[in-house]
Amino acid sequence: MRPRLTYQPGASLLHRAHPLVKLAWLLLATVAVFVIPSPWLILAVVVLAGAAFPLCQLRLGRLWGTRLFAGTALLLALLQVLFNRQGAVLFRLGPLAPTTGGVAAGIYVGGRFLTVVLASYLFVLTTDPSDLAYALMRAGLPYRYGFALVTALRMVALFEQEGLTVYRAQLARGVQYDVRHPRRLLLLARQFFMPLLVSALGKVDSLAVSMEGRCFGKYRTRTFLKQVHFTRADAVGVVLLLAAIAATVSYLVIT
Fold first, then answer.
1. Per-domain residue ranges for the chain?
2. Which of 112, 113, 187, 230 has its CA 20 to 30 A from that of 31?
3. Which pLDDT score is estimated for 215?
C-alpha cells in the first residue's frame, strides 16, 4: 500500500525546521511562481523542489496522487505546446508544428503547477500538525482555532482509511463500481458516502463528549505537552527567506 499524504516522521533538516519558517517558504514559493515571468527560473524551482524529496528521505513516486498531478502538469504543458503559436517553429510533424513560444509556455504553466504541488507535498510530509498548531498558537492564534486545525488534519487520514474500508466491504458484498450509467453512479455515491457520514457523526459526537469531559475552552490559555523551539538553523532559514524575497523583488523590478 502506498503511503498516505500525511506527516512522515524523519530527521532531515526540513523535518527539524520550525513550522512557521516552512510555512513562510511555502507562501513565497506559491507567490513567486505566479509573479516570475521566466519559464527557466520556474523550471529551476521545480528541479530544486524535486531534489528536496530524496534529501528528506521521501519517495515521491510512492505517494498517493503523484501520477495524477504529474499527468495534469504534462497535459497543461502539452496544451500550450500544441496550441501556442508564438515564436519560431521548431519542427513540423504533419499538422503538429511546436514553436519556441509554445515550449516556453508549456514549461511555464506546467512548472507553476508542479511547484505548488511539490512545495505543498514537502510541507505536509515534513510538518507535524501538532507542531504547526502549537507554533501558530504561540504566534497569537487562539487555541480553539489551533485545535480545529489539528483535528481537521488528523481527520483527513482517518476518513481516508474509513473510505478504503467501506470500499472494500462493499466490493466484498458484490457492489460493482465499474458501471458507467449516470443513475447508477448517483446510487453508488449515496451508498458510499452514507456510511462515511454516519461514521463521521459518531466520531464528532465522541470528540465533543471527550472535550466537554476535559473542560475544553474553560481557560483562556492552555499548556502544551510538546513545545517547538526556534533554533539557529531556523534563523538561517529566515535570513535566506528574506534574501529570496529581495532577489524576487529585484528581478521583477529589473524585468
1. 13-127+231-254, 141-213
2. 230
3. 78
